[in-house]
Task: structure prediction
Amino acid sequence: MSERVVVALSGGVDSSVAAAMLSGAGREVVGITLALAGDASRCCSLADAEDARRVAERLGVTFYVANYRDQFRQEVIEFFADEYLAGRTPIPCVACNQRFKFHHLMERAAALGADRVATGHYARIDRAGPGGTFRLLRGLDRGKDQSYYLFDLSQEQLGRIEFPLGELTKPEVREQARKLGLRTAEKPESQEICFVPDNDYASVVEAIRPDALPGEGEIVDEAGAVLGKHAGIHHFTVGQRRGLRLSSDRKLYVKRIEAAANRVVVADGAGLGSSGARLERVSWIAGAAPNESTRATVHVRYRHEGEPARIEPDGSGATVRFDEPVRAVAPGQAAVFYDGDAVVGGGWIAEALA
Amino acid sequence: MDAERLYLDHNATTPLHPEVVDAMARVLREVYGNPSSSHALGAAARAELEQARERVAALVGFRDDEIVFTASATEANNTALASALLAGDGPPGHLVTSTIEHPSVVEPAARLSEVGVKVTRVEVDAEGRLDPAAVAAALTADTQLVSILWANNETGVVQDVAAIGADAATRGVPFHVDATQALGKVPVDGSAVHAAMLSGSAHKFNGPKGVGFLAVRDGIELTPWVRGGPQERRRRGGTENVAGAVGLGVAADLAVCGLEERAKRYEGLRDRLWAGIQATVPDVRSNTPLDAALPNTLSVEFRGTAGDVLVEALDLEGVCVSSGAACASGSIEPSHVLSALGRTPEEARATVRFSVGLGVDEAQIDRVLEILPRLVARVRRVSS
Result:
């Protein structure tokens, strides 16, 4: 019998084509849609699950829906809300990948007799790294590359993951989907966080933690002068300019959110740069931190172009020192280290350094 | 691949008996008239329909003119409850039912209570059995209907509907019994249980999907649920599903014939399965009271597993079973039936239902027993 592989089917074009490629290669594909967020959200909705089911039917592969709504609420959505309330800017997609696609689903796959889990991520795994290790590489389509969201995968996980789309471009994936007559071929991209309708983060925070909401507070400049009021720090992210409603002739941005003081600190563009960042919960793709400081290109958010930096490992954390100041370094986001196309590791931004 | 499939999910639905298929195919090809038409083709369709009605009546101990064809037992249950509790002009009345009903009674009952009907849900014991005295004690002067599931779809537990019906009759309260899972597996006689109304569905006993019936005792006024025409003596509008009714009728005939012997065979298979599971899989418990249940049903808790994952693992090995009742995709709320038995959400989630029927033999049971211990161990290893 051919090797069984579980494919996480989201109901979008990417995972559809990933499943088609594996099935076409003679693998026994078991497509599973993870029911994560409530039905109201865009991804994980009933309609997407139905698209996934229809794709599986078209491909003639087995299909199941796996319900992890309770765990998703606890492990992802509540954490997301708490991060905002702590003045940070969370990025839930990393935890969603780590916990749901490559932990819960991987366990389910093992229970179903499948050693491998495949997804429609644009990333590659090099199975011939130094010392028999696995390396995580950018997807060949640089514009779609999703390796940033995968930086905390372990060697054991990488050994059991497949990314069939890693060598393809998005247009090629759509072309494949059209050729196969998949109903998802022209389906638009989901750009938002799946459980945040209309990019309205604050409403999600308010719905999840109605009793813990911060009240009104002050908006101040770096010298401490009060420039205005805000309706709760969870409405703000570092680097944000819109929605400040300040009467100032300067272009002001959120530089820092001080949760304890319930205060939003603003600065002009020149004051927005950081020389580095303190990271926590750092992981290294090779499995262990390097013995001494190392150089890499560091991305402080998904769409960041990257900045060369020195990384000084320190226990489970690290300090990053950029060659040139980086704008809008936001606590709660991931800093991911690249050496060329390879992800070396990454960690969670605890603090931006002045 | 289909030839190797082991289908042990006969409480979800059943394969069609070949005689049912033949009868339906004949009607679909040849008898296309509308039973309401006065010409010869209409009369031919009408004759088929009425013969089917006689057969269903014989199955459930009602007169043929007391049988109303519906699209499902779900429709029959909705009709029965709405007719008994919403039809009159008086103040909202009282419904007595149980905590382990099928969703097609649970949800209409919830809707009725929203519009002011008082609903009493009598609790069951740890094996899922209702005490008839407790049902009788729930009756009040306002009670307009007692509605009880004859045999539970999830655990197979069979209620003492004869005693419940007798008590209701003594108090002059109409008794509706949903016999959907009982038909074809245990003797069903509407008279013996004093049923005013009785629901059933063809696809649970080797008939087609999309056709069911509500038997309504003469003298019980039925308010139509589906309105729109004079069909079914003005009790259910819409052109009749003639081929479906014919299939139901043939299935009803087959269900009556050889019932005792068939039930014994199912029981033998079910007991063989349970004995095998107990011998080869540690930490299991039956939710089915074997001495008071349908002969074909076995609900098993495999402690420490996720039942939905075990169902998928079995499916990938060609074995079709179900985790609790079949639900909409993605929904795995712990079963209300198992909760009513006092099971925790984890215990309810660890449950798999096996149900045997037409075409299942000992060799198939033995093959399942060969596969099952390994799969349970694998699912447990991952969940622990």
Remarks:
- Residues 40-44 of chain A have pLDDT under 50 and may be disordered.
- Helices of chain A lie at 13-24, 46-59, 69-85, 92-111, 155-158, 170-179, 201-208.
- The CA atoms of residues 119 and 163 of chain A lie 6 Å apart.
